[in-house]
Each structure stands twice: as C-alpha cells, then as structure tokens.
Amino acid sequence: MKNLIVSIWRGREDGRFVTYEAPRNESQTVLDIVTYIQREVDPTLSYRFACRVGVCGSCAMTVNGRPRWTCRTHVSKVVEDNRLQIGPLANLPVIKDLATDMTRFFERWQDAKGAFAPTATRADPIAAIKPEDARRQAVDAGIECINCGVCWSACDTVRWNADYLGPAALNRAWTLQNDARDGAAKERLSAVAQKGGCQACHSHQSCERHCPQGLNPTASIAGLKKMSLSAYLRGELK
C-alpha cells in the first residue's frame, strides 16, 4: 500500500496544517495514524486520548472536515485520494495542535444545571422506576452521552451564538427533567429556557448526524421546548 499523506494542524488558533507521511495498514484507525506520527516522526505533536476503544471520547478530532472519535474511525472509511486532514475540534479554543480547551463546553453543562439533585437520602429505600415508564424511556434515549464534544463541534448554533448552552448540556438537562428522583426540575427548566437555552436551537440536527453514540440531542431539546412552553402558559416561567 502507498503511504498516507496526512495533514495535521500544528500550533494554536493561528497555526497551520503540516504534512506528514505515514504507512497505511489494514484495519488502521485515524488515532493509529496520529499516534504513529507522534511516536515515530514528531514527538512534539500534542493530542488527547485515553481508552482507545470508544468509551472515553477524549480522542475526538476533526477528520476531513467532520468531527469524529478517531479511535473508532477506520482510515479506509474516510481517506480521500490517499490523504487525510486531521484538525482539532471546532468551536473550542486550541491549546496546542489537536488538543482543545473543553472549559467552555463543561461550563455550559453546569449552566444548564446538569447535576442530579437528589430528593432522598442514602437511608431511604431505592426508588423503583419501571422500564416501561414513559419518563424513564425519555431518559434512556439520551443517557449514553459521554461529553466527548463532537456535537458541540458540529453545531452551527454554537458557532453563531456565544450564549448557547449546546446540544450535550441540553440533552443532559432533558434526561434530568424526566428523572422522577431529581428535585431541581423547576430551577433547571428556568435555566434552559433563558437566553441561549433550548429556544436557541435551530433544529439542524447536526448533533444527531454526528453523534458517535447515535443519540439525538435535537429531540431532547425539542422536549425541553415543549416543556418550557407549557410551563410558561401555566405562569411558571417568565
């Protein structure tokens, strides 16, 4: 097989793409390519990864213009004319090369009141929630988010609107709003109904199209829109 021609982003926001060559092998992932270049060609290359098996989400990068988990992306599926272009996730400050600063992403998660607020103590019986319960099923549809940032990188509204909470934070809020054990529903709904909240979503579904977990944050956000409108009509939101 011919060597791959790989363009990798180097530097910070004002950096540039630098071209390398890497051997092409069978069943090779994009993360394998980045690791080869860092270990064998240029040890100054910075990037982030941990599990390598699609559990942690930390290896997310932009590959040929699309945000992906590089550990789960096989080169054969994305290579174009024997070339790859690998950059950092969009919509996040670049620390160095392929490593981005996730601070803003997680701050929005906090702004959306993404922490579970228990209504029981450890001394109380465990709440019994049946699998067929409609609210439980709503939680199930969005619970597998691991906060990798791919949806944030893919979202046009994040790019346009600095106040937007983002797909992952709003998806998390939706799962908590449907958790019968949570006691912060009123405060959380108020938070996600404010400027930059669920109403800011344009429903482009870029988050759903790119989510490696197959989740649909747009559907979660639509649920929040309905919930907040109902609360407004009841006079519970201003």
What is the assigned CATH homologous superfamily of the largest domain?
Answer: Alpha-helical ferredoxin
Shape: elongated
Main beta sheet strand tally, sense and closure: 5 strands, mixed
Secondary-structure arrangement, i.e. CATH architecture of the largest domain: Orthogonal Bundle
Q: What is the oligomer described by this structure?
A: single chain
Number of helices: 10
Which runs of at least 5 residues are low in confidence (pLDDT < 50)?
Answer: none
- Rg, rounded, reads 20 Å
At the fold tier of CATH, the topology name of the largest domain is Fumarate Reductase Iron-sulfur Protein, Chain B, domain 2
The whole-number mean of residue pLDDT values reads 95
User: What is the class of the largest domain in the CATH system?
Assistant: Mainly Alpha
Domain module tally: 2
Count of beta strands:
7
Structural class: alpha+beta
How far apart are the termini? 63 Å
